[in-house]
Amino acid sequence: MAESVKVLISEEDVNSRIRAMAEEITRDYAGKQIHMICVLKGGSFFMCELAKRITTQVSIDFMSVSSYGSDTKSSGVVKIVKDLDESIQGKDVLVVEDIVDSGRTLSYLMEMLRDRGPASLRLCTLLDKPDRRVVDVDVNYTGFKIPDAYVVGYGLDYDQRYRNLPYIGVISFD
Ligand code: IMP
Ligand code: MG
Question: Least CB-packed of 3, 23, 31, 45 within 10 Å?
Answer without folding.
Answer: 31
